[in-house]
Amino acid sequence: MPPPFPDKSNGYEQYANIFMRSRSPVVGVATMREWSRSLPAGCDVLDLGCGSGVPVSRVLIEEGHAVYGVDASVTLIATFRERFPTMHTECAAVEDSTFFDRTFDAVIAWGLMFLLHADSQKALISKVAAAMNPGGTFLFTSPRDPLSWNDVMTERPSVSLGLPEYERLLRAHGLLLTGERYDEGENHYYLVAKPKMLED
């Protein structure tokens, strides 16, 4: 019989303290800082699967942006709130976040997308597209090739839809893949933009 309150953190609540100890404070920082400096000054950024806020949200905050962090792990979001008490937070699965009731100039999903089932990834891309202001940007990480594996920490299934399918989904929702990056940890980044509306 399934538990009455299913874990929506994709297993990360159980391993939250191990994850915080093992998460590198430097991997991805240079890429994140470059991306954050390309954003409008002081913009609102939605960080999906924000974890404890280090290092991704920390970089964004250091660069002067206001972060809206959402994570389903009670332990990780509590640590985030302790570190960044003036930022906006929500403890929820990203698919259920009420932050999607508003819009943002930038959205990031670092180390999250591939943890979700394929259908949830597709639904999330749709929500992100609706929540992005025209001219906004979206950054997420997932392998370039379509593949599946078990998460090293939780041993739960992970899946990358692969670049062709991600690009197809993005285009279907009015988003454009504008670039790719790799960092020192061999994480693959998708850089995405929502075109500005044409003036009449």
Walk me through the structure.
The structure is a single chain. The protein has 200 residues and is of the alpha/beta class. It contains six helices and nine strands. It has one domain (28-193): Rossmann fold, CATH 3.40.50.150. It has helices at 16-22, 29-37, 56-62, 74-83, 118-131, 163-172, and strands at residues 44-48, 66-71, 88-91, 104-109, 132-141, 147-150, 157-160, 176-182, 188-193. The model has no long low-confidence stretch (mean pLDDT 94).
Q: What keywords describe this structure?
A:
alpha/beta, 26% strand, seven-stranded mixed sheet, 200 residues, two-stranded antiparallel sheet, 9 strands, Rossmann fold
Largest sheet features? 7 strands, mixed
How many separate domains make up the residues?
Answer: 1
* CA distance, first residue to last residue: 58 Å
Report mean pLDDT, rounded to a whole number: 94
Rg, rounded, reads 16 Å
Gross geometry: globular
Helix content: 25-40%
CATH topology annotation: Rossmann fold
Low-pLDDT windows of residues: none
Query: Strand-residue fraction?
Result: 25-35%
What class, by secondary structure content? alpha/beta
Q: So, CATH architecture?
A: 3-Layer(aba) Sandwich
The first-level CATH class name: Alpha Beta
Q: With helices defined by DSSP (H or I, 4 residues minimum), what is the helix count?
A: 6
Order of strands across the biggest sheet?
3-2-1-4-5-9-8
- Element-by-element helix/strand order: HHEHEHEEHEEEHEE
Q: Determine the CATH superfamily.
A: Vaccinia Virus protein VP39
Strands, count: 9
